[in-house]
Each structure stands twice: as structure tokens, then as C-alpha cells.
């Protein structure tokens, strides 16, 4: 806006000025991906504060909608380090707002509990509904209100899950539900061997064969910290730790990918040396 100095203009998006008493704004602190539109007003309107006689700029940020969102990214190059090698990275996000989930969950709960709903009655009364996710406040609130329990996968440590126990209790309290009726299950990747060295060798094979070398920075120590991995006794100790937190069921994915069984021996070791101890 021309014709007046910066001090006579206003910005209505709460972006801080780098100095007190100065109205110049560092707009590079606002990510362009968050901007929906920019409104420029050279004269004041009745619904505006009278603090910009030279005009005002209203940056309208995007509103999170409920339409599905797909975001894909890729990065590639060549580095001369260690004789030269390719460097590549890919990523993607598929998401949708919680509003659709909340309405669907509400309708599903109503249809399963309404005797007049069409279709056969569920075999289980009531039919348990489970919600899966990382365990943010809104998901736990929905689970406490309408679900039998909550499931989280695939890398979770007992220490991390212990922090969620209080969140579950708080969500149940807000919904007037006894936390003792809220069920929790955890799914975990697992590399299990007759010895820790055997399990570590399986991990190294998984890391070397993982698509896109996505596990190249992973170590055995970081892997074992939040998976069901190690010798049978180490795995039993991890199971006991989750049991002490009130987790009623653990789901094993015996590799570094969900439900991939590339080395059936992992399942055999689990069935023969872990399950009998945990029953």
C-alpha cells in the first residue's frame, strides 16, 4: 500500500514485530503453505480497529477441512563422499480430519445399539469398537466416549505408554467413564531369536533389505527400545512391563514391516519360548 508510512498500516494476523514500537512485520516467519488469501483494505470498515489509517492487510490462514488430503514428496541427489553414492528420500502423508471419524463413529455406535436398525444383530453384545492411533487428546476423547478401547502401533516403549495412561484417565474422566472399563492393546514390530545375537542378526538383515534404505540410521539399541525384540527372556520382560501398565493384549508383527513374515523362525521362537511363559 503506497502513500503512507508503515506506522500507519496494520496487519491482522498476529505476526510479531522484530522490535518494540515498530510496526514493520517479518512476513517470512509465516509459512506460505498456511495462507489461504490476503485481503488489502485501503480504507477502514466498521468492523475494523481504528489503528491503521493508511490501510490494513488481513492474512487469512487456511482452515482445516474434512476432505482427504494426499501429500507426496521426493528428494534425490549424488554425494561424492565415500567414492560417490546416490542419496534419495521419499515421503507421503494421507490424512483426513477427525470430524468425519467422529460422525461415523457416532452413527456406527447408534446403529449397533438401536434395536430398530436394519440388518442382523451383532453376535457380541455390545459389539466392541476399537480406535487406533497415536493417542492424541481428541482420539482418546472419542475412544473414551464411544469405543471399547484404544490400540497403538508399531513402535512404542513402555515408558512412552506409561505417559499415556494418565491421558486415558483424563479422557475417561471428561466423558464420565470408569478408566477400568477402557481397554488398551499395543502392536509392536519384533525381531526375536534364541539369543540376543541371533535377534540382532535378524535386525541387520531387515535393515539391509528395507525399502529405500529407510532404516540405514537405525541401530540395534534404538530398535530394541520400542519394539518387541531380543532374546526370549528380554521379550518376556518387555511383555511384563506392558502388562504392569494395564495393557491387555500385545500384537506381534514379526519383522520391520506390518504383518510381514519374512523369517518364520521368529514366530516359532515366539510361540515356543515366549508365549508359554506369558500365559
When the domains are counted, the total is: 2
Query: What spatial form do the alpha-carbon principal axes imply?
Result: flat
Helix % is 25-40%
* Number of helical elements: 7
Q: Output the strand order for the largest sheet.
A: 6-7-8-9
Proper CATH architecture of the largest domain: Alpha-Beta Barrel
The residue-averaged pLDDT reads 81
Give the distance, in angstroms, between the N- and C-terminal Cα atoms: 74 Å
What is the level 1 CATH name of the largest domain?
Alpha Beta
Major sheet summary line: 4 strands, parallel
Based on DSSP secondary structure assignment, what is the total number of beta strands? 9
Task: Report the CATH superfamily of the largest domain.
Answer: Luciferase-like domain
Give the ordered list of helices and strands.
EEEEEHEHEHEHHHEH
- List low-pLDDT spans: none
Q: In terms of structural class, how would the helical and strand content be classed?
A: alpha/beta
- How much β-strand is present in the residues? 15-25%
Which fold name corresponds to the CATH topology of the largest domain?
A: TIM Barrel
Radius of gyration: 27 Å
How is this structure best described in words?
This protein has two domains: 6-61, no CATH class; 130-278, TIM Barrel (Alpha-Beta Barrel), CATH 3.20.20. It is 32% helix and 21% strand. The chain contains seven helices and nine strands; from the N terminus they run E-E-E-E-E-H-E-H-E-H-E-H-H-H-E-H. Helix 6 (232-244) crosses helix 7 (265-278). The longest helix is centred in the middle third of the chain and has 17 residues, at 158-174. It is flat, with a radius of gyration of 27 Å.
